[in-house]
Q: What sequence folds into this?
């Protein structure tokens, strides 16, 4: 009789252990799936563009400043339409002789679109983070300055 009780307790202990291990494995798998989903939602790139954004009269307006290696560089901003529109910033050396001084260069672009349009950024063809500062529509975007601590 006692061997039956002992066997029953051993079987119950083994089943309980299997259940606990199973629950822990399932929780660990769910946590990994949740973490990978969060990483996919927020991609971070090596480069970041600080940009002022304003939606005014059916247009998205982007303005900002980026550093270029010399004053001889030009900056061009264009928006490529799509479900997620692309703000493309390109820098180009005009050539010639220039002082090797890091310089701030301004860009400005307007894009007709819906208010809830999504955007992603590219700098010289490479994906970049957009650090967007929203500007109220009743303000002049060119009069607003962004001060970044660095």
A:
């Amino acid at each position: 009789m006692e061997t039956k009780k002992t066997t029953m307790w051993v079987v119950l202990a083994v089943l309980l252990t299997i259940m606990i291990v199973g629950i822990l494995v399932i929780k660990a798998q769910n946590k990994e799936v949740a973490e990978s989903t969060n990483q996919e939602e927020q991609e971070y790139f090596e480069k970041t563009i600080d940009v002022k954004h304003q939606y005014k009269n059916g247009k998205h307006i982007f303005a900002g400043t980026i550093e270029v290696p010399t004053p001889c560089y030009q900056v061009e901003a264009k928006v490529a339409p799509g479900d997620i529109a692309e703000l493309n910033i390109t820098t180009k050396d005009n050539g010639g002789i220039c002082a090797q001084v890091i310089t701030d260069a301004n860009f400005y672009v307007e894009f007709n679109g819906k208010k809830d349009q999504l955007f992603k950024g590219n700098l010289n063809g490479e994906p970049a983070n957009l650090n967007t500062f929203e500007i109220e529509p009743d303000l002049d975007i060119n009069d607003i300055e962004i001060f970044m601590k660095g």
Notes: The beta strands are 47-56, 59-68, 73-80, 84-93, 103-112, 118-123, 126-134.
